[in-house]
Write a structure and sequence with these properties.
Length: 416
């Protein structure tokens, strides 16, 4: 069985390399004529761990037998991947996004500053914090849609757009920590460590909220001259949806969140939700089924492949002092997904409460450093890339743009 663990470790390392090199597959897709579809698939960040997990299961079957490999796969817990898929699709539905848009618009009218400045600030501050209720991927989608025509457009200095992208990514990553179900890195450990939403709000959430406000305020202060005269009404398509339809969607979302640890229940609710959206298609936009499935596939692959990493991870992480664990988590998150990091941490036996805090705090603080650092980041890139020169976002420039907001997040989560 030791050979199986070694193979799993090697494949996990290859998965990390694949994650970092995903953009290279996109370039190959642009050059290829026969296999562009395959290269585009391999370039999807969310496909990585699911793909390598499948390779591992095949290798395990060849080494120890198909029955043992199937038994291992069936022994894993897949509630979290299923929940992330379901809640992403429901939270990103048109009526739910319309409710949040209406809230942002109403608040922007009572804030004692110009409407365009207020709306930008709310998109960088309030929407990421709302992600603690509607999930981080939904918050990223809404914020990106509202900010694309106002901040991520031609006429804004390129360095400032990268700074804004860094703030958005960091704020979404830490803004989901007010609850135990909205941020993938928290979701992967919440059940194992017994962290509920009350614990998250009192231990992580208020510190993250302060950091979000500081980051958003500093950025919008620099953006002020470039927002003058921007028409906020064009920032998001006005949606005419009956109140009762929006209410039904919000109730579906709330019920799914309540039964987050009961997959039979929330999957049944999801099927009813799909039926409702089909019955009232005139009030719907296309559901993000593909994006949700890819993220769920990523997390499920992580559960399978990560379950074999405890043998080497436990002595490494357990040997780190809490301070080293915090900054190590920040750095590791930049080259892998923070949900992967915290899930591996959840496998370690005997971690102190302080070490658990440092691991998760470092993972969420570093979630804006790269495109691959946090699951919602690729969605933000897809929605905002056209606003940058050449229609693409540079990884190095994003890293530089995220350094200051990441440092702010680290200061609040580490020092307070």
């Amino acid at each position: 069985m030791q050979d199986v663990h070694v193979v799993a470790a090697v494949l996990f390392a290859l998965a990390l390399v694949h994650t970092f090199a995903a953009k290279s597959f996109e370039r190959l897709a642009d050059r290829s004529t026969k296999h562009s579809g395959l290269f585009h698939l391999l370039g999807e960040i969310e496909i990585v761990f699911g793909l390598w997990a499948a390779i591992f299961v095949c290798a395990m079957a060849a080494m120890v037998g198909g029955k043992e490999a199937l038994g291992y796969v069936e022994s894993r817990q897949y509630t979290e991947p299923l929940f992330v898929f379901v809640v992403m699709v429901v939270a990103a539905s048109r009526p739910v996004l319309g409710v949040v848009k209406a809230l942002v618009t109403a608040l922007s009218k009572i804030v004692p500053v110009r409407a365009e400045i207020a709306q930008a600030w709310l998109c960088f501050a309030l929407v990421p914090l709302i992600g603690s209720l509607i999930t981080e991927p939904a918050a990223m989608t809404l914020a990106a849609l509202m900010l694309a025509p106002t901040v991520f457009r031609q006429g804004i200095p390129e360095w400032l757009k990268y700074g804004a992208l860094g703030v958005l990514f960091v704020n979404v990553s830490i803004g989901g920590t007010l609850t135990s179900f909205a941020a993938p890195p928290v979701l992967m450990v919440a059940a194992t460590w017994g962290w509920d939403s009350v614990f998250m709000a009192s231990t992580f959430g208020w510190k993250a909220a302060l950091a979000v406000v500081v980051n958003a305020t500093g950025l919008v202060f620099m953006l002020r001259p470039h927002l003058a005269g921007v028409k906020t009404d064009s920032a998001f398509e006005e949606i005419s949806i009956p109140v009762w339809v929006s209410l039904v969607h919000v109730l579906f979302l709330a019920a799914i969140v309540v039964f987050a640890h009961h997959p039979v229940v929330f999957m049944a609710m999801f099927l009813f939700f799909l039926g409702f959206t089909h019955a009232y298609t005139q009030y719907q936009s296309p559901l993000i089924l593909k994006e949700g499935l890819l993220v769920g596939f990523f997390l499920a692959g992580l559960v399978v492949l990560g379950g074999m990493q405890q043998w080497w991870l436990q002595p490494v992480v357990s040997s780190l002092e809490p301070t080293a664990l915090f900054f190590g988590a920040v750095g590791l998150t930049a080259i892998t997904d923070n949900a992967a990091l915290t899930y591996l941490g959840s496998l370690i036996v005997g971690m102190t409460d302080h070490a658990k805090y440092m691991l998760v705090a470092g993972a969420v603080a570093g979630g804006g450093l790269t495109v691959i650092a946090n699951a919602p980041n690729p969605a933000g890139v897809a929605l905002l890339r056209e606003g940058f020169n050449d229609g693409s976002i540079g990884i190095g420039a994003l890293l530089l743009g995220a350094l200051i907001p990441t440092a702010v997040a680290c200061a609040f989560l580490f020092l307070l």
